[in-house]
Design goal:
With 111 residues, this protein is an alpha+beta fold. It has a single domain (23-105), classed as OB fold (Dihydrolipoamide Acetyltransferase, E2P). Helices cover 17% and strands 33% of the residues. The longest helix is centred in the first third of the chain and has 19 residues, at 2-20.
Length: 111
């Protein structure tokens, strides 16, 4: 009887631990170059105020993990509300939002 309880306890523990792990598909979390800008000003997305967004394969996503003002003034001459910029990003799309684990704004080529 004692062995049955130990077996059940170990089995239930193993199942609950396995259920809590999530795997990220490495292809979804790969480093990529994307267009970045204000979602409302440049990508015509619905929302209030100015929020950072990226465009991946023609589809726009608001960004979690970094903010629009973390990368300079949004309304500056080369800011996200004024022009679409290139960025090197890593992250995944969750519930129609891009969750960034890395976001590096690339230098503006225009002088």
């Amino acid at each position: 009887m004692k062995c049955i309880f130990i077996f059940l306890f170990i089995s239930i523990s193993a199942i609950s631990i396995k259920a809590q792990t999530t795997k990220v598909n490495p292809k979804l979390d790969s480093l990529q170059i994307v267009e970045a800008a204000c979602g409302q000003c440049k990508f015509n997305m619905e929302g209030k105020g100015c929020d950072l967004a990226v465009r991946i394969k023609g589809k726009s996503y608001f960004v979690d993990g970094t903010k629009i003002d973390d990368h300079g003034g949004a309304h500056a001459k080369n800011g996200f509300c004024e022009k679409v910029r290139k960025a090197e990003v890593r992250g995944i799309i969750v519930k129609n939002r891009f969750v960034a684990t890395s976001f590096k704004l690339l230098p503006d080529k225009e002088k």
